[in-house]
Amino acid sequence: MKINKKKLLFVCLGNICRSPAAEGVMKSIINANKANAYYEVDSAGIGNWHVGQLPDSRMRACGLKRGYVFNSHARQFTKSDFQYYIFVMDQENYRQITSQTQNENERKKVVMLADYITQHANVKIIADPYYGNEKDFNNALDLIEDACQQLFVALETS
Ligand code: 4NP
Question: How many Å lie between the centroid of ligand 1 and the Cα of residue 67?
Answer without folding.
Answer: 23
